[in-house]
Amino acid sequence: MSAPQSNKIPVQQVDLDGTKHRVHPRFVTGFYQNIRVITMYALLAAFLLLPWLRYNGRQAIWLDVPSQHYYIFGMTFLTQDFYFIAAFAIIAAFALFMVTVYAGRVWCGYACPQTIWTHLFQYVEKWVIGDRNKRIKFDKEPMSATKVFKRFLIYFIWFVFSMITATTFVSYVSGTDALYNSWQMIGFIPFPEWATWIWVSVFIFAFSTYVNAGYMREQMCIQICPYGRFQSVMFDKDTLVVSYDYERGEPRGARKKGSNPDNLGDCIECLMCVQVCPTGIDIRDGLQVACIQCAACVDACNDIMDKVGYPRGLIRYTTERQLAEKEKSRVFRPRFFAYLTLLTILCGGVLYALNDRVPLEIDIRRDRNQLSSLNQQGMIENSYIVKLTNKTQDAHTYKITLAPQEGLSLEIRFNDVPLEAGESFDMPVSIYGDPDVIEFGQTPVTLNVSSEDGKYHVSKQNVFTTQGQ
Ligand code: SF4
Ligand code: SF4
């Protein structure tokens, strides 16, 4: 029988009088921890290095919010393309739901930034003070010069990590070049406004990183993170979760080395699973909202089982169906097909839209002051502002033409419009209509835009009106 689920606040962190204690997990090695550490540091390295990657001479991932141009590996998105970002977010959410249904909170334990940075900051404490027992003792020690020095060293390293994190994060938005230039502006009077915003953002993100990873830590997962709260509704009997084999382990109890008493289960009550837990809980109390499924307790307990000569897996990744009902878990269940179908449709839709997308945009706005006017030659004139945006990664020259229509002609200030990569340009254009030829009222007109190499074409419709003179 498995232990009941529990939502209680872990007892290791809170005294009866409500005093909270800092969790100092013991660092453990093992199969899952090796995977976890490699995954976490690979993701961390990707986060730190990606802004420095160049693609066609431009920052490969640059979310240039001030100019509303978003560059992702050769593709330029504008605010009008926001539906792509929404689609990516929906795909990411469904992928996360699907993974959660199968592998539980694998995101929390292996890939969540809160977990990665907390691990990093705790590693700094371990490096400066020592492993768990030394850190607990250090907290209780009276203030001394050594304690002040070690605390200062830890805070300083945390600060450096926080600044590196924040500058990297901001560089995805400001661009690495602007960040570098703003750094060079330090000491300049007056300090430019754009550089001020960059550094204000850096300090806000650095502060958040410092507080989250240095102080909030597991409280963020237990008290604040909404994903941790609602993921339990996505679990079913076949979801893989880290579980304690209650039937095998109980009754728990210490024993002499080499002995195997009949009245005790396999849990030797060494508490190693509790000591390694980054959220300070006891997995033997059952599935808890504070468990981020990092599997540190699995590795710790397996290590103990090896030492006492018992089979591994007293704490393991398993499903409720396997553990409690002694049945085989089902992988291909209706939910699987539902998520798979939905993800396939969404991914297919986005890929199709990306493939079909022309990296050239035209927008036509009418002159709102006057619908139409008569010029000296007696022709009816309609004025528009045509906005062209080059969404490619290269400079192009574009030509605007009017789709042939009897009685209508286009007048434009420039025959060729050269645009740099990502550049937009507003251009006044006029369409003239011969009152003897065109019909009274509104006539649809189409403007065509083509690049000089013939690779890109777009068209947009508007109306020519004879009213309002
Ligand atoms: S590590 Fe294993 S043996 Fe030790 S207390 Fe935890 S469950 Fe029991
Ligand atoms: S109970 Fe185990 S899996 Fe859950 S957070 Fe603690 S160490 Fe990680």
Can you walk through the features of this model?
The structure is a single chain. With 469 residues, this protein is α+β, with helices and mostly antiparallel strands. The protein has two domains: 1-357, no CATH class; 360-465, Immunoglobulins (Immunoglobulin-like). It is 41% helix and 19% strand. The chain is built from 15 helices and 16 strands. It has helices at 31-49, 82-103, 106-110, 113-128, 132-140, 145-174, 176-184, 193-216, 218-224, 226-230, 246-249, 272-275, 296-308, 320-323, 334-356, and strands at residues 54-55, 58-59, 61-64, 69-72, 75-78, 241-244, 315-318, 360-366, 373-374, 380-390, 396-402, 408-412, 416-419, 424-433, 442-451, 457-465. Strands 8, 9, 10, 12 and 14 form a five-stranded antiparallel sheet that branches. Strands 13-11-15-16 form a four-stranded antiparallel sheet, with no helix packed on it. The chain has a three-stranded antiparallel sheet with strand order 3-4-5. A hairpin with a 2-residue loop joins strand 1 (54-55) and strand 2. Helix 4 (113-128) packs antiparallel against helix 6 (145-174) and helix 6 (145-174) crosses helix 8 (193-216). The protein binds iron/sulfur cluster (SF4) (2 copies). InterPro entries: 4Fe4S_Fe-S-bd (IPR017896), 4Fe4S_Fe_S_CS (IPR017900), Cyt_c_oxidase_cbb3_FixG (IPR014116), Electron_Trans/Redox (IPR051684), FixG_C (IPR032879), Ig-like_fold (IPR013783). The chain crosses the membrane at residues 35-53, 82-103, 152-174, 194-213, 336-354. Residues 257-286 form the 4Fe-4S ferredoxin-type domain.
